[in-house]
Structure formats: structure tokens, C-alpha cells
Specification:
Blueprint lengths: L9 E5 L2 E5 L8 H16 L21 H4 L3 H7 L22 H4 L19 H11 L7 E7 L5 E7 L2 H4 L6 E5 L9 H12 L3 E6 L20 H13 L5 E6 H14 L7 E5 L5 H8 L4 H18 L13 H5 L4 H12 L5 H6 L14 E4 L1
Parallel strand pairs: 2-9, 5-6, 5-7, 7-8, 8-9
Antiparallel strand pairs: 1-2, 3-4, 4-6
Helix pairs in contact: 1-7, 11-13
Length: about 375
């Protein structure tokens, strides 16, 4: 996002791409996601203005998000709202930018027409809100039915379906694949709240637990990475085979969002998904790594490193005696995510260094090739 400022709220829209970015103070975290779930589901169910257009004719984003278009100022939006048609301004913020906007699509996002109001007291600081939500958000009870898929390299991933949905929902019900963040899975509160909201709208939901996450099996000396889309590709193909009459969608958080957007970019106009949502995507992993080591962000870095170590220790025997550049002691005792990636992840996926891994795994390099409707919330 070379044209996006992180200090001003931004709204970017092209015929197949929508991104919403608030100011740094108002960057939505996990608790903010719950407040906007209704808008996300409404947007996915709103008839697209591109319905009926064959995917093979879908214009590529690189032809749509031109620098001149990206520089459209909100004054254009304001002038359109004063054309005598009596319509209200699409967005209330004077610093918002729009590229290729269509009113029919914007109408599906009610919260975008209202100023952002943080949750009283707790949201006055993004760190306070994040920590408060982590300790106080309820954990809904969901009965899952687990399905394990064997991958071509003899690994395994776990899909958690809602038990009983096969009988309760029609065969053509839309399917939503959820991709949790780093070390996340179907046990996390934010995942379950999104799952329940989608089910209340008649959607079939499945949680894609990456290798080792949510107690999914690990059968090889490899976990998963920000660059690897093979497991997701297999999951999408599997879901399509099972529900050939359904529209398939996907939503990802954080690292899961990065993997999702990379997958969409790799698939281009051959993508089988009907739409996708990316939430709190790091996009540029080099910058994300630098930010992880600043101020209070170190707390999150250490917490994620603890979760990575916990997953690793459950399967440590698989990594005994590995040759090459592996630094197993460094991964096993990692104090930061970077330590773990340096000792294990980047070697497992063939990168020369951790910096090489981050610079070549960023979804910011893939988004220009996305050809399906994609909503990004930062």
C-alpha cells in the first residue's frame, strides 16, 4: 500500500477491491472486529454490482489502482453528494480517499457512513482495548466435528466444522472458511464469535486450523509460514468438491489474512472463491517485524513467541537430528517471533535468512493480482 498513510483514515475502493483503514489510534483489534461482524456479513450477502460478470473477464487490480486514481481526494466525494440529488455524503471523514467507488457497493457498509466511536473508556487506548477483550470476551460453546486432511508432503491440517450443519443447512448454503491468526484456531474467542454470526445468517462455516494449531496433528518436521499457500489451496479445493453448488468465501485475521491474500494473488482470475475478507493483515512483514520491536508491541511479540514455543514443544521429537541450517535450540527457546522464524520457519521453507523470508512472504506484493471481491479492514 504505497499510497496509504497510516496516520489518516483511508478508504480505498476499486471495482473488485475495498479497503478500510482507520487512524492509528482507531486501528480495529479483535474486540472491534466483533462490532463490525454484522457489516461484514451484510456486505458478503449484498448483491454485488459485478454479479453476472464472468471471472475470466475480471479486470486486474494493477489496471485499476493507478496512482492518479489513488490520489482522488474526498472533495470529489463531497461534490458528488452536493449534485442536487439530496444524497448524504458517502463517508463522514474529510481525509478519506476513494478510487473507483460505486454507490451500490458502499450502501452495504452502514458503519462506513458513521464516525468511528470507540468503546467507552477501554478503547481510548488500543492496547487497553486489546488486552481487555482478551481477558473478558466470552467463549461461545460450539460443538465441532473435526476432519483431518493429509497433505501431499505427508503433513496434515485440521478442519473444524460445526456439528450437525450437514443436516441443518441446505446443500447450496454459502460456505465461509475462517483462517485464524498466528498460532490461532477454533478455540479462540474471536473465531467463534465470527462463526456464530455467520451461522445465524444461514452460512456453513469451517475453521482451517494450520499445522499444530488447535491441537491439529503434526506429522512432519514442518509447521506453516506466511509464504506457504499450498495447504489453503488444498482446503479450498476440498470444500468445493464437497459443496459444488455453494458459493465459497474466506476470511482471515493477521497472518491468516496474509496467507489468504497471497493465495488470492496467486490464483488471479482462476480463483474459485466468490469473495474474501482480510482483517488486520500485516501486508509488509518487514515493516511488521520492525514494529513488533517497538514499545508496547514487545508484549505481543513475547506472547506470540510463547505460543509458538508451546506448539513446538509438543512435537519436538519430529525435529531431532535435522541437518542443514536449522537452529532448533533457538526455536525451542525463542523470545520473539523473529527468533522462531530464524531458527526454524525460514529454513523449513527454503529462505536464506529471516529477512529474506519476510521480504518474500508479504501479501503487499500479491494484492495487485487479486481478481475477486476482497474487503480489507486494517
Amino acid at each position: 500500500f504505497p499510497h496509504v498513510s497510516t496516520t489518516q483514515p483511508q478508504f480505498l475502493l476499486a471495482p473488485r477491491f475495498l479497503a478500510v483503514q482507520r487512524s492509528e489510534k482507531c486501528i480495529p483489534n479483535l474486540s472491534a472486529h466483533c462490532r463490525r461482524e454484522s457489516d461484514l456479513m451484510a456486505a458478503l450477502q449484498t448483491p454485488s454490482p459485478f454479479a453476472g460478470t464472468a471471472r475470466r473477464f475480471a479486470p486486474r487490480l494493477r489496471y485499476l489502482l493507478l496512482p492518479t486514481t489513488m490520489s482522488l481526494s474526498s472533495s470529489i466525494v463531497s461534490s458528488r453528494s452536493r449534485d442536487g440529488d439530496g444524497e448524504q455524503p458517502l463517508l463522514p471523514h474529510s481525509s478519506l480517499e476513494i478510487a473507483g467507488a460505486r454507490r451500490g457497493l458502499l450502501a452495504g457498509f452502514d458503519s462506513l457512513r458513521r464516525p468511528y466511536r470507540a468503546f467507552p473508556v477501554f478503547a481510548s487506548n488500543r492496547h487497553v482495548e486489546t488486552i481487555f477483550a482478551a481477558f473478558t470476551r466470552s467463549l461461545p460453546t460450539v460443538a465441532f466435528r473435526r476432519e483431518c486432511l493429509r497433505t501431499p508432503d505427508d503433513g496434515a491440517v485440521a478442519l473444524d466444522w460445526v456439528s450437525g450443519d450437514d443436516r441443518a443447512l441446505p446443500g447450496d448454503a454459502p460456505v465461509l472458511i475462517l483462517l485464524p491468526g498466528l498460532t490461532g484456531g477454533s478455540q479462540d474467542t474471536y473465531v467463534r464469535h465470527m462463526l456464530l454470526r455467520a451461522r445465524s445468517k444461514g452460512w456453513r462455516v469451517v475453521v482451517f486450523n494450520s499445522r499444530g494449531c488447535a491441537n491439529s496433528p503434526v506429522t512432519t518436521a514442518k509447521f506453516y509460514s506466511a509464504s506457504f499457500t499450498g495447504d489453503l489451496r488444498q482446503v479450498v479445493d476440498h470444500v468445493l468438491t464437497r459443496y459444488p453448488q455453494s458459493n465459497i468465501y474466506a476470511a482471515g485475521w493477521s497472518l491468516g489474512a496474509n496467507i489468504l491474500v497471497r493465495y488470492l494473488g496467486e490464483e488471479t482470475d482462476k480463483c474459485s472463491l466468490s469473495g474474501a475478507v482480510s482483517m488486520c493483515n500485516p501486508f509488509n512483514l518487514v515493516i511488521a517485524d520492525e514494529d513488533f520491536h517497538k514499545g508496547f508491541n514487545n508484549i505481543y511479540d513475547r506472547a506470540l513467541a510463547n505460543s509458538l514455543r508451546a506448539i513446538f514443544k509438543k512435537h519436538a521429537l519430529l525435529f531431532e537430528g535435522l541437518d542443514g541450517e536449522y537452529d532448533i535450540p533457538k526455536a525451542a527457546n525463542a523470545k520473539t517471533v523473529r527468533d522462531f522464524d530464524e531458527g526454524l520457519t525460514r529454513v523449513s521453507f527454503g529462505f536464506r535468512s529471516v529477512d529474506d523470508y519476510y521480504s518474500n512472504s508479504s501479501s503487499s506484493d500479491s494484492i495487485k493480482n487479486v481478481s475477486i471481491p476482497l474487503l480489507c479492514i486494517q
